[in-house]
Write a structure and sequence with these properties.
Layout lengths: L21 E3 L2 H8 L4 E8 L2 E14 L7 E3 L2 E5 L5 E6 L5 E7 L2 E7 L3 H37 L2
Parallel strand pairs: 3-5
Antiparallel strand pairs: 1-6, 2-3, 2-8, 4-5, 6-7, 7-8
């Protein structure tokens, strides 16, 4: 079957809608899903045997055929090109499970941080930073006004 966007006999299929479970093969979708993971428990398996597991922080998620996925020193650098697909599941405790699959091995990621809580913290940190910057700028203006007053004496 060929795809002809000008033909009226073929209808365009909608993009998939995946909610909590499913298979993701599109690399851009994989990037979006993985980019806000934060702290995770990871399990690296090959042929059903656990090779390595631990806790770490997802530092970077990228798509580059020339680079590796790296897991070391409690940090994860995830290259979506290292995997055939991402299987999204729910754990028995109803939390998200991300399985990155390549042939007979996979990297399972279990989030330990909550993006909703982290977003609130980021917003609070941004608001606190804005308040500090405003205070510093205000203090700078006050200092300039004091200097101008001293010069006019």
């Amino acid at each position: 079957m060929t795809h002809d966007s000008h033909s009226s006999s073929h209808t365009k299929l909608p993009a998939p809608c995946i909610v909590d479970t499913g298979i993701i093969v599109n690399k851009r979708d994989m990037l979006r899903l993985l980019s806000d993971l934060g702290r995770v428990h990871y399990v690296y398996q090959q042929g059903g045997d656990v090779i390595s597991e631990g806790e770490g922080y997802v530092v970077d998620v990228f798509s580059d055929m020339g680079q590796s996925t790296l897991v070391a020193n409690h940090t994860l650098y995830l290259n979506v090109q290292s995997f055939d697909y991402l299987e999204l599941q729910r754990s028995p405790q109803n939390s998200a499970v991300f399985n990155l699959i390549q042939d007979d091995w996979h990297l399972r990621l279990l989030p330990l941080s909550n993006p909703l809580q982290e977003q609130t913290t980021r917003n609070l940190n941004a608001a606190a930073l804005e308040a500090v910057v405003a205070e510093v700028l205000s203090a700078g203006w006050d200092m300039r006004m004091d200097d101008e007053d001293n010069l006019s004496l």
